[in-house]
Amino acid sequence: MATFSKSQAPRFSVEVYQNAYLPEGGREVNAIVTVTSTGGGTTGGMPIPSRLTGVRDSRGSSPDAAVVIMVDCSGSMDYPPTKMRNARDATAAAIDTVRDGVAFAVVAGTHKAVEVFPGDGQLATADPETRALAKDALRTLSAGGGTAIGTWLMLADRLLASADVAIRHGIVLTDGRNEHEEPEDLRAALDACAGRFTCDARGVGTDWEVKEVTGIASALLGTADIVADPAELSGDFTRMMETAMGKEVADVALRLWTPMGAEVAFVKQVAPTVEDLTARRVEAGARAGDYPTGSWGDESRDYHVCVRVPAAEVGREMLAARASLVLPQQDGGPAAPLAQGLVRAVWTDDMVASTAMNRQVAHYTGQAELAQAIQQGMDARKSGDIEGATAKLGRAVQLAGASGNEDTAKLLAKVVDVVDAATGTVRLKAKVAEADEMTLETRSTKTVRVKK
Predict the structure, then answer these.
(1) 3-state DSSP call for residue 69?
(2) Which one, of 248, 244, 298, 295, lies nearest residue 98 by Cα?
(3) Is 163:123 a contact under the CB 8 Å cutoff?
(4) Which one of 8, 90, 168, 434 counts the least CB within 10 Å of its CB?
């Protein structure tokens, strides 16, 4: 194995897109903060924390990581019987994707959580031998019992906590509703695990609850999706694990500093998915707060930041906010800055300048509205509110078309008959496949980026 130098550590960059001009007395400043992480290269002059150095295996990944795969083994996994077999095959495919040196474990989840491999309350270290033993252990997986996902997450947390690693990740597969624990028990488990590891969640088939699966991914800064056909699980699990193995840096926070008199109104991740981070702020000194972003590999994400500033006269200019990427130090020392960008406010009497909306801000405002319209429309449809559902889903069709979100437009077309996309004129379909309905709900927060 070879070490990699500090110059090979991931590099972060921050770009700010905004219209800085406000009318006299204007107070609200909106900006899109684009954060990009690329492997290798330099850090643009920013100091690299010691946590970004480590050892890479022969396949190029840092082994400073641990992952726990949680497989639903409740009784419903036997209907049809091929579902359990597909789940075993998918878990085996994920294990094959775990890189040498990464710590890992497999948990069987029912109304309780049982460690299937390695089975000693610890994590195994991935190599050809342990991967083979783990796949052998999967043969013991069988369907029976209930579903209590909170217990699965708590066992995963205990296992992951036993590893002295930077990247901690979980994968949850479920095919049913969380019926064998109270909703507050799952909520408590998510609260306990938040910030300790990230987690992707998948629902297989169509008998699970969308809000439970998406809630897990949201709380633990992971991804959520539906795998309607169990035969597609192996491919999905392989892609998930490949992404997890590509993560290089954990616990990165978006830090917003605002001057005296200014305050952050909201912070939302808006690409690749919509996720409101406002309530997750952690105070980070005078007039600064950290918003969690989770783990990073080679990728780029966009954040919508809204800041309220003190009203000012024409001609005044101020720094409305400083957006920084920071990495908290394990020894409790000052957070290490990785990159930063500035959000400005300039007061003008030029009405054209002050009323123009920045292209990126306009686009992502529409994408956030699109996600909300889909969710509200589907809720209205379920409750029998035909008029409300038609209005909301019609607006979603209009927004999807205007923003070029073709994937979402295709999903909407399976739920409504589109009469005129430009005006959002639609009719609800009389019959909709359950898988199509759940796919639209699960993927409603996925966005498209601004076209260059």
Answers:
(1) strand
(2) 244
(3) yes
(4) 434
Residues 153-205 have pLDDT tens digits of: 999 999 999 999 999 999 999 999 999 999 999 999 999 999 999 999 999 99
Return the exposure string of 378-389: e unless at least 16 CB atoms fall within 10 Å of the residue's CB, then b: bebbeeeeeeeb
Q: How many CA atoms lie within 13 A of 258 on its CB side?
A: 19
Q: How far does the chain reach from its first CA to its final CA, in angstroms?
A: 40
CB 342 within 8 A of CB 56: no
Torsion of CA 156, 203, 137, 79, to 10 degrees: 140
Q: Say if residue 6's pLDDT is above 50.
A: no
What is the C-alpha to C-alpha distance for residues 201 and 445, in angstroms, rounded to an integer? 15
Q: What is the pLDDT of residue 450?
A: 85
How many whole angstroms separate alpha carbon 309 and alpha carbon 28?
6
- CA distances 126 to 91, 114, 221, Å, are 14, 20, 24
Peptide bond into 23 cis (omega under 30): no
The C-alpha atoms of residue 33 and residue 29 are separated, in whole angstroms, by 13
Give the three-state DSSP class for 390: helix
274-285 pLDDT tens trace = 999 999 999 998
- Res. 235 pLDDT band, cuts 50 70 90: very high
For residue 348, give every residue at least 6 positions away whose Cβ sits within 8 Å of its Cβ, in sequence order, or none.
21, 22, 23, 24, 314, 315, 354
Side chain identity, residue 278: T
CA angle 149, 155, 160 (to 5 degrees): 125
pTM beyond 0.85, yes or no: yes
CA atoms within 13 A on the CB side of 283: 4
Do the Cβ atoms of 298 and 265 come closer than 8 Å?
Answer: no
Assign 16 to helix, strand or coil: strand
Dig out the tokens for 168 from the structure: 């901690």
The count of residues in the chain is 452
CA–CA dist 439, 447 (Å, integer): 14
**For 335-394, what is each residue's pLDDT tens digit?**
778 999 999 999 999 999 999 999 999 999 999 999 999 999 999 999 999 999 999 999
DSSP string over 202-255 = EEESS-S-HHHHHHHHHHTT--EEEE-SGGGHHHHHHHHHHHHHT--EEEEEEE
